[in-house]
Design brief:
- By secondary structure, the chain is of the alpha+beta class.
- It has one domain: Nuclear Transport Factor 2, Chain: A.
- The protein is 34% helix and 44% strand.
- It has four helices and six strands.
- It has helices spanning 2-15, 26-35, 38-43, 62-75; strands spanning 45-53, 56-61, 78-88, 94-103, 108-117, 120-130.
- It has a six-stranded mixed sheet.
- Strand 1 (45-53) and strand 2 form a beta hairpin.
Length: 131
């Protein structure tokens, strides 16, 4: 009986689809910004996010940040994101990226700050400034 149970579990684990979402890295966050993928950004947001969009800057809850990004990406449809500079904090517990977001309404300078959490990252700050 134990052998049968073992074979069943071994077979099921091989055939079962991998539904566990892999942790995202800073590069994934940058790709999500370039694609305007708000759902992916929301999945890595901290409970509060420092968000600055042009001249509106505040500490937003995750839901408020998602709504603000949805509005921004709706008005300025993104087409690509190019990294200009990337680095890590001295203690290596955070990473940042500075890049240019190409949109339908012109380019924006973007600053991204994430804290490392386990194998992934936690988005804590996001800034969009006109170039």
């Amino acid at each position: 009986m134990k052998t049968l149970l073992f074979l069943y579990l071994a077979t099921f684990s091989v055939l079962a689809p991998d539904t566990e979402q892999k942790p995202l890295a800073l590069d994934d966050v940058c790709r999500a910004i370039g694609a305007g993928n708000i759902d992916q950004l929301a999945s890595v947001m901290d409970t509060e996010v420092e968000l600055s969009i042009i001249d509106q800057e505040d500490l937003y809850s995750r839901d408020q940040a998602v709504a603000a990004l949805r509005k921004f990406f709706g008005e300025c449809s993104p087409s690509s994101f190019g990294k200009v500079h990337q680095g890590a904090s001295k203690t290596a517990d955070a990473e940042y990226c500075i890049g240019t977001l190409a949109t339908a309404k012109g380019p924006f300078r973007v600053y991204v700050y994430v804290a490392k959490q386990g194998n992934g990252v936690l988005l804590q700050e996001l800034r969009f400034e006109r170039e």
